[in-house]
Amino acid sequence: MASGLYRWGSIFKSKYRRRLEAAPRPSYKRPEIMAEKDRIIIVGGGPVGYTAALNLAHYGIPFLLLEEGDEIFEDPRAGTVHPPTLEMFNNLGVTETMLGRGYIVRNYHYRDRKQGLIAEFDLGVLADDTPYPFRLMLEQHKISHILADKLSEYGDHQVLNGHRVTEVRQNGGNVTVTAQTSGGIETFEARYVIGCDGGRSNVRKSMDVGFEGFSFEERFLVLTTPFEFADHGYALTNYIADPEEWCALFKVKGPDDKGIWRILFPTKPEETEDEIFDDDVIERRMQGFHAKPEAYDIAHRNLYQVHQRVAGSYRAGKILIAGDAAHVNNPLGGMGMNFGFHDAFNLTEKLAAIWLDSADEALLDRYDRQRRTVASEYLQRQTIENKKNIEQDNPAERAKFLDDLRAIIADPEKQRVYLRRAAMIEGVARAASIT
Ligand SMILES: Cc1cc2nc3c(=O)[nH]c(=O)nc-3n(C[C@H](O)[C@H](O)[C@H](O)COP(=O)(O)OP(=O)(O)OC[C@H]3O[C@@H](n4cnc5c(N)ncnc54)[C@H](O)[C@@H]3O)c2cc1C
Fold first, then answer.
1. Whether the CB of 304 sits within 6 Å of ligand 1
2. Could you tell me if 313 and 372 are in contact, meaning their C-beta atoms sit under 8 angstroms apart?
3. In CATH, which superfamily holds the domain spanning 10-25+33-94+139-215+307-389?
4. 371-404 confidence digits (pLDDT tens)
5. Does ligand 1 come within 6 angstroms of the Cβ of 198?
6. Which residue has its alpha carbon closest to ligand 1 atom 29?
């Protein structure tokens, strides 16, 4: 296996579990800061879990966060942060830090592998819609670290790593959470539980709701290289259409802040993992995309199974879900994590109204209505459409789509309408309109 190679999913998880079983039990200090039940439990310390945590801390609501891993995962997944997300995080005082850690991308490219540049979008046309008329390229684990650092400024909470939640049960007016640790089973009680435990969510499974949708047959390959594509006319974000091998190309700052490029390719369903990860196959793929005399230096190679699914409900009594636990989608458009952030803000604001102002718990049904409706109407529709367009193999449909893009960038008002949707402003507004 090439160095730096790991795969999100079964291989990574089973390796982690072996580590968890083998590791000596860490000695967690558990300060007596709250009555055992008088708190909210967040399951999952990914970007969405930490967002829920920081907003609860901001409102002064006690919580306990239970995370399976020993630390924040660093696999290369989300890297795009959209304007409404930056607005929401600004209320928590972390947006400036985020802006300082990533790349601000005002212009991005839609390209065709044979025809080259089709449309250069200018997010500046959103200047009247948002104080942040750009995308921020910042890796998701860095966002989680920024949120976790900010959290350390607040009291009244605990974060317990090495706790894999296996079951969540309603218990009279409270909820009981069972977790597996290296030292055995532990149980915890709370008034509410928020499941932010990702696509395979045990919290969602405990709620016994469906996760309807479909999975793509092909897996998505992400390669990471330091080769400087900006010297060859590429923007820091590029979507590149092709009926045989579309791709998406982004620059993020990377581990040493010097800048690294990620390129996302589809693979064929029948290709084995060994074939996909073979050095010669990868080199041919990269040279086929952009030929150069020297071989590519590939820092990481990751393979992802991709799904389009939405949970049947985001609420079962006092148990709620947010982020990938509630919906999953393909990464084209960079929306999944952002959408999860919007869930977390929406939900924790409602919980704060209930906790602090005795608002009716029916508000939590509104969370479900708002966020689940928009996940289906907007997130699923938009990301499925993004994939359909980038891989379109009908020549007439392809030509029409590319002509439409050219027409959109030629007209600032059309571009604004298009970018309000692509930049997720429309989705947030639509959710707010649902009573
Ligand atoms: C290649 C790729 C590129 C992407 N790019 C983008 C992008 O640019 N923009 C975007 O918005 N989205 C993007 N996404 C989607 C994004 O990565 C996810 O939407 C995001 O990670 C969801 O965050 P989350 O916190 O809900 O879940 P996760 O990131 O999956 O975090 C879940 C956390 O819960 C923990 N956990 C799981 N089970 C348990 C348990 N039983 N008990 C305790 N803890 C548990 C896990 O260890 C993990 O820390 C991309 C995805 C992929 C695959």
1. yes
2. yes
3. FAD/NAD(P)-binding domain (3.50.50.60)
4. 999 999 999 999 999 999 999 999 999 999 999 9
5. yes
6. 46
